[in-house]
Amino acid sequence: MAKVKSRQGRILSGLVLAGAVIGLVIVLQSAVEQGSWASAEGTVQERLKSGKSVSVRVEYPLPDGSRQVATLSENGPSRQPGERVTVRYDLEDGRVVDAALADNDEAFWVLGVMLGVVILGGLFMNFIAWAPERPRRT
User: Fold this and answer.
1) Whole-number Å distance between alpha carbons of 138 and 131
2) d(CA 58, CA 126)
3) Angle at which helices 7-35 and 105-130 cross, to 10°
């Protein structure tokens, strides 16, 4: 294992910090992009469980009057069949290319906080790695 003040330690701490910053930028960019999508009120048709993950099948209207049915990941509160939900969707050339429940922002918050903690740890490691060594008293 490399010591923090060694060359390998400095490179590793720099890479950890850079990776965490890039990850946080990607998470924030995705959150902002999803926030700009169109939204519609939909109805939960079915709740699906697969192991620990839960998703819901939701029917919602599109601007052209047609109805779209999509299976969306449920990261927020538990939804039951018949319940009304807000769906965000991204349209390209009149077709839905991506959709999510509007209350799925919890995943972005969790990732953002986790990466923020890693960034703070990376900053601390870099301060230690690049701090000048104190002369030893004899």
Assistant:
1) 21
2) 47
3) 160
In tens, the pLDDT along 88-135 reads 999 888 889 999 888 777 777 788 889 999 999 989 888 888 887 777
Q: Who contacts 116 (Cβ-Cβ below 8 Å, separation ≥6)?
A: 24
Spatial separation of the C-alpha atoms in residues 21 and 35, rounded to whole Å: 21
Q: Tell me what pLDDT residue 48 has.
A: 93
**DSSP designation for 80:** -
Q: For 58-69, what is each residue's pLDDT tens digit?
A: 999 999 899 999
Cα–Cα distance measured from residue 42 to residue 88, given in angstroms and rounded to the nearest whole number: 10
Place of tokens 């052209």: 64
Rounded Cα–Cα distance for residues 43 and 137 (Å):
73
DSSP string, 14-47: HHHHHHHHHHHHHHHHHHHHHHTSEEEEEEEEEE
Task: Give pTM, 2 decimals.
Answer: 0.66
The amino acid sitting at 16 is: V
Nearest to 85 by CA among 106, 99, 97: 99
